[in-house]
Amino acid sequence: MRYISTRGQATESSFIQALLSGLASDGGLFVPVFWPFLDDINSDHTYSDIALKVLSPFIAKEIPEDDLKKIIADTYNQNVFSDPDIAPLKPIGNDVFLMELFHGPTLAFKDVALQLLGRLFDYVLEKNGQTITIIGATSGDTGSAAIEACKGRKNISITILHPQGRTSEIQRRQMTSVIADNVHNLAVEGTFDDCQNLVKQAFSDQSLREAKNLSAINSINWARIISQSVYYVDAARQLGETPAFAVPTGNFGNIYAAWVAKQMGANIGSLVIGSNRNDILTRFFESGEMKLHDIVPSHSPSMDIQISSNFERFLYDCLGRDSDRLNQLMASFRKTGHYTLEEDALDGARKNFIARRCSDDDTVATIKKVYDESGIIIDPHTAVGVHALHTSGLEHQGPCVAMACAHPAKFPDVVHRAIGVRPPLPDHLADLLTRPEKFSVIANDFDTLKTHLLSV
């Protein structure tokens, strides 16, 4: 399998090159030259079996199958994930299920991909005698999951940027309480989009990129996407039907992973985008215009995003893989903060997704509704997805799955407001709020970031 850039200027790359570099040299995102077809999935396949079937055609023997099996087995087991099913389904209504993706070490769906990614990085770097500097931006959960996956690994230095004061305390402490020599946390005086723009600037600085062998662990990394595609295929296996999925969505990576699985032939039905009050994606599907608004803090802070990086991959296919048209739209977005999709491409986009928004009041009400009806406590991000499903018109037409992306204990204040209960953290994080922290506050300034990266 070879990989091309959405921007059309970079040379074709191998899987390992795409894994290690994260972002293409022309600033675009890696996509495969074609969509491989998924082998048949049987009801008795385990999560690890499905992971091998999904990942293998994208890796295409660059990692020998026996080695890949070992990496997968080392990732998806009860030493890493607290539930033997990895991503169990829990009923919350007639033909409505939650897929719990928070049974990894940092209690968020990012663990499912990043625990695998850390091991893939380790395997490739050790084999090639290389080191890398990982840089990533987080709106809450990616950072802690990436740090957990990379801490203490001798061939990796990791720097994570988060927006100062715009994550929950628990999300922040999960990152900043990891005291390891290869882990560096920077609190940026700005928004998540500012953090993400700094990361993109770092990758655009060719001398820095080469000097530090920069790599990305955000969902711009193709390996993240395909690792997340696995649990959508597994949900369809567990249900034995073609379910619809509702996904709380900010950066478009998680729901794009479902779309990738669908392109491979997986039994996946309608895809529902759940936006919070920062609803740029829902506005786009309503109007065809992608237009920046100011970011407003919400009850679901991991989704307080206006620049959905992974949408570029989907847009590339909507445009018939026409890099020239894509570059024109991206240039307009950088210059003016908006672009409008032509009707032919917009029609194609709307055939694939339904988009709904959820206010903070609706978030609280949905947490209460799910708890009252099922006894299950959900976090505010999951509530955004559940609300989107409730308003999509898809319920009672077949099985529906809402992705439960974070443990409710990560957002105790909102949960308490909804149901009067503060869910406790699991035992391995029970002392989190008393652990010492290590991080630096920096201005929203690329030169400051560059100085830091050159020093680590």
Structure description:
- Helix 5 (141-150) links the parallel strand 5 (132-137) and strand 6.
- Helix 3 crosses helix 4 (110-128) and helix 5 (141-150) packs parallel to helix 6 (169-176).
- The model has no long low-confidence stretch (mean pLDDT 94).
- The protein has a domain at 89-107 and 222-419: Rossmann fold (3-Layer(aba) Sandwich), CATH 3.40.50.
- The chain has 456 residues and is an alpha/beta fold.
- The strands form 4 sheets. A 6-stranded mixed β-sheet has the order 3-4-14-9-10-13. It has a 5-stranded parallel β-sheet with strand order 8-5-6-7-15, with helices on both faces.
- Helix content is 44%, strand content 15%.
- The two termini are 34 Å apart.
Strand content: 5-15%
Task: State the distance separating the first and last CA atoms.
Answer: 34 Å
Main sheet properties = 6 strands, mixed
Tally of DSSP helical segments: 18
Shape: globular
Instruction: Provide the CATH topology of the domain at 89-107 and 222-419.
Output: Rossmann fold
Helical amount among residues, as a percent range? 40-55%
User: Radius of gyration from the CA trace?
Assistant: 20 Å
CATH class of the domain at 89-107 and 222-419: Alpha Beta
Looking at the overall shape, the CATH architecture of the domain at 89-107 and 222-419 is 3-Layer(aba) Sandwich
Secondary structure class reads alpha/beta
Average pLDDT, rounded to a whole number, is 94
**Strands of the biggest beta sheet: in what spatial order?**
3-4-14-9-10-13
